[in-house]
Every structure is written in structure tokens, then in C-alpha cells.
Structure to design on (125 residues):
């Protein structure tokens, strides 16, 4: 089922949580680990050619910092505060993060723990 961008959502009250496996490197950077396929036939072919079953996506310092904040406990307002504390006040950070998190959600890297709660829903008047 394809998700539409929800216009009647209070973005700052959303609580993102990670939805894929990851590793933290010694330098603190995060690597996301994604299974290439769930299809057993394709997995067998990948194994036959001695290839990895996983994609590895390496996040930079800022991406790693944000990934660690998405623990399923902090809402977007708290995450934005932490980002501004660490990296300074950037113009339009909220709008940039909306696009970033929308991409993460569409790729199924994250999900929102409280997407259907009344506190997140804006009045539809």
C-alpha cells in the first residue's frame, strides 16, 4: 500500500523509530544494513555467486547523529532541539527535516510510533 504524504499531521509531535538493522562504528558513524531480497530463489543465486545478502548504507556525521536520536522515545521537536544544539541554528531546519524524514519513511527505514494518535492529528476544519 502506497502511503500519501499526510497534510493534517503535527510534524513536531511525531515520534520516529528505526525500522532497519544498523551498526555503530568505532568513530560513532552509523551503517544501515538492508537485506537485498526476501525471495529465496534470488537469495540462492546471490549465495551461488558468493555475494553479500545485504546493502550497507554509510551515514555521515549528521545523519549518524540524527539516526541515534530516533529511539522511539523522542518526538521531532526534541530531535530538532538536539540537532540545533549540536550543529547550530540553521535556517528552515524543520522543513528540511520534514523532507528527510519523509524519504526515510518512504524507504521504510523508519516508522512513526504515534502516527495515528490524536495529539499528532491536526484539526481538520
Amino acid at each position: 500500500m502506497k502511503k500519501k504524504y499526510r497534510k493534517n499531521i503535527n510534524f513536531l509531535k511525531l515520534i520516529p523509530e528505526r525500522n532497519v538493522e544498523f551498526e555503530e562504528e568505532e568513530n560513532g558513524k552509523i551503517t544501515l544494513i538492508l537485506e537485498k531480497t526476501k525471495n529465496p530463489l534470488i537469495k540462492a543465486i546471490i549465495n551461488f555467486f558468493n555475494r553479500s545478502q545485504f546493502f550497507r548504507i554509510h551515514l555521515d556525521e549528521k545523519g549518524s547523529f540524527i539516526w541515534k536520536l530516533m529511539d522511539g522515545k523522542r518526538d521531532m521537536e526534541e530531535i530538532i532541539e538536539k540537532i540545533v544544539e549540536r550543529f547550530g541554528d540553521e535556517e528552515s531546519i524543520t522543513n528540511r527535516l520534514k523532507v528527510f524524514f519523509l524519504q526515510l519513511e518512504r524507504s521504510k527505514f523508519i516508522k512513526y510510533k504515534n502516527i495515528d494518535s490524536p495529539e499528532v492529528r491536526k484539526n481538520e476544519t
User: Anything to note?
Assistant: The beta strands are 16-18, 21-24, 30-35, 54-58, 110-112. The first helix runs from residue 40 to 48. The domain at 11-112 is CATH 3.90.930 (Outer Surface Protein A; domain 3). The chain has four helices and five strands.
